[in-house]
Design brief:
Elements: E1 5-11, H1 15-26, E2 35-37, E3 42-48, E4 53-59, H2 67-72, E5 77-85, H3 88-97, E6 109-110, E7 116-120, E8 130-134
Parallel strand pairs: 1-4, 5-8
Antiparallel strand pairs: 1-5, 2-3, 3-4, 6-7, 7-8
The structure holds ligand LZKTLF4L and cobalt (II) ion.
């Protein structure tokens, strides 16, 4: 069911500091412009890699879903992995049937790439917060 790895989500207290870290330590120089996703409670910045992206995420607003993570991991850390799927609703129903816990209402929301996304609770996914993202149509 899952397709390519789209991105690795990395939570950080400072996107600016993390962009500098990835640039200076790892030579990752292709960071895009940061942008806010108020509906998702995060500020986002993508670092392009040859085969995927690093998604740097910073809390945005008091209700950000990553405040808890950063309280436990003040320097930030690997937060989630995002896999592409062809059909987000089909994937949702299949995961639900297999006993995965869908986060939020279970209805897809629009993510940082402008396509529908869902999250699966880490407790059912071997301790990994899994994001499913519908493959952008132009990618077909
Ligand atoms: C959407 C824009 C962008 C995109 O790609 O398009 C993004 O990806 S933004 C990403 C930020 N948004 C989300 O993460 C939404 C889904 N996340 C959540 O709903 C919460 O973060 C949740 C429920 C996973 C955790 O919430 P919280 O930290 O407040 O709850 P707890 O502290 O009670 O944690 C419960 C349990 O889960 C473990 N946990 C928490 N976060 C993670 C994580 N990132 N990876 C692995 N495990 C995680 C935590 O340690 C607790 O475990 P326990 O054994 O019960 O102590
Ligand atoms: Co993500």
């Amino acid at each position: 069911m899952i397709g390519r790895l789209n991105h690795i989500g990395v939570a950080t207290p400072s996107i600016e500091a993390s962009v500098a870290l990835y640039r200076d330590m790892l030579g990752a120089t292709s960071a895009g412009e940061p942008f806010d996703l108020p509906a998702q409670g995060v500020r986002v910045c993508f670092i392009d890699l040859p085969n995927a992206q690093i998604e740097l995420i910073e809390p945005l607003g008091d209700d950000s879903p990553i405040h808890g993570f950063l309280a436990k991991n003040p320097k930030g850390g690997q937060h989630h992995v995002c896999f592409e799927v062809e059909d987000i609703l089909g994937a949702r129903d299949a995961m639900r049937a297999k006993g995965a816990t869908l986060l939020g209402t279970g209805e897809p929301r629009i993510g940082a790439h402008g396509t529908p996304i869902l999250f699966l609770h880490p407790k059912d996914m071997g301790g990994v917060l899994v994001e499913l993202m519908e493959t952008p149509k132009e990618a077909h």
